[in-house]
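Hi there. Long-time user, first ticket. I'm pasting a complex I've been working with (about 576 residues overall). I'd like to know whether the download I got is complete or cut off, because the file seemed smaller than I expected. Thanks.
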Amino acid sequence: MARTEVRIAGFGGQGVILSGYIFGKAASLFDDKYATLIQSFGPEARGSACSAQVIISDALIDYPYIRKPDINVVISQEAYTKYGNDLKTGGILITEENMVSVGNGALAQYEHYTVPATQIADQLGRRIVMNMVVVGCFTAVTGLLKKDAVRKAVEDSIPKGTEELNLKAFEAGYNHGLKLKTERIGIGQ
Amino acid sequence: MKAEKNAVLTGAHFIDGDHAACEGAIAAGCKFVAGYPITPSTEVIERIALRFPLVGGVFIQMEDEIASSIAIQGAVWAGKKAMTVTSGPGFSLMMEHIGYAAITETPCVFINVQRSGPSTGLPTLPAQADMMQARWGSHGDYEVIAIVPNSPQECFDLTIRAFNLAEEYRVPVLVMMDECVGHMTEKVVIPEADQIDIVERKFTKKPPGEYKMFETNESMVPEMIKVGDGYRMHLTGLTHDERGYPAMSPKVQQKMLRRLVDKILLNEEKIRHIEEDEVEGADIVVISYGITSRVVLPAIKKAREDGLKVGHIRLLTVWPFPEAYIRDLAKRVSAFVVPELNLGQIVHEVERCAAGHAVTRLVPHAGGAVHEPVDIYDAIKGVLEHA
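Hi, the file is complete. Here it is re-exported in full:
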């Protein structure tokens, strides 16, 4: 696998950085790959624009910043305005269905998936696990990392006692992603 | 001597450079940290505050950086290994006490996670613009050791080395990280405690009546004592004789200062820590350190694909500068290209040592981000054309 650049963007408090951390940890500790994570955020604790840059590769990573992402995960409208179109042609775009309106513009140049992560998290009981739904969806649609590796990274990165809810959210997101992926392959045929 | 088992978090971790530096300090035997939190170094002491109660260390959040940088020296003379952690403006406040550590030969570690300046600058963004301040920031003549990691793994490994060098040479050692390395998260493998070599303090075995605080043999590094062991201790920032008492004469100044400088400069080759890549036979050699040493790699690769003979030297220890090494190399290459996240600091050392034998070209960057590799590539391509 060559160098793959992933950006996750939203606002502070949504679990953007933790999502990036989980991808990086899954890759470098549980999937035999190299990964770097760089985070950027404003001085506010919550609510300001926030993004994580994850590079995943089979080789040591030299330049740890994103040039043009292969995968863009966008979970706020503000982040979509800023980064929605900053993606390689043919790249994967994942947006949160209720938080992000992609408008009427054609997204044919990207492989676009939407995930109602907030709604799924609400149904599971706590909106706070929205990011785990996104992580699950990412895992299914990108195929970049082994599912087991990401699951392990989730378990390894969340507060003790919250495993069940977080893993449920992860699985729900994964199943949603798998469904979208299968539909897309169907269209392709 | 090996690391203390309960202080070492053996295993593979996905942590940032700040956290890794904290673990390096703890593995090295650091038992006292005083600091005043400042971005982008805050995570180092946050983790220290969390981890120290588990390993028998003491952390004090001081009123400011001036107090922090002298509190650690008190802890050292009480027998502990100690460090402080800061960034930009805090580093400026600590300068006086780097000089104090140098003249009193107090082994201690300063971590500076560099951010863009001057003054408050860009608190959350990277720079490598304190490199000369690290060397010259305190008044008077003195030498320090400054080491520069380029990954979270090296933040761990080189912080241990910093503590070891501090003890070996009784000198303040500066770990000159940058915001990018400090806040970048990557895999860090922490070995078993019995795989980590630790240099213990050389306490004197002489009885109190025979011991002099600054008496040395060929090693140029005096043996230490700690308070409460029954020795007479006199420690001063004034020029002092072998007993540690003030002695206001040019003769004593010459002897003391010469030794403070020589114990580092005459051991430069021993302290030297560089990595070479395809330097033999190279026409152009890129010299880099810290995060920039990763950013240069795509540029070097592309230039080599164009058929240029490009070597790369990475400085893991910047001070003392590897003067003899660069002087020698300058006679065998055509040009040095020096990218730094500043408007020209270490390039001056390279140019001085090149002494006209090789063209020296800075690739400056004002900070707030890292270089675009293409700018470094262009500099490599152009350095001989415009020579």
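A couple of notes from our side: Chain A has one domain: 4-188. The mean pLDDT of chain A is 92.
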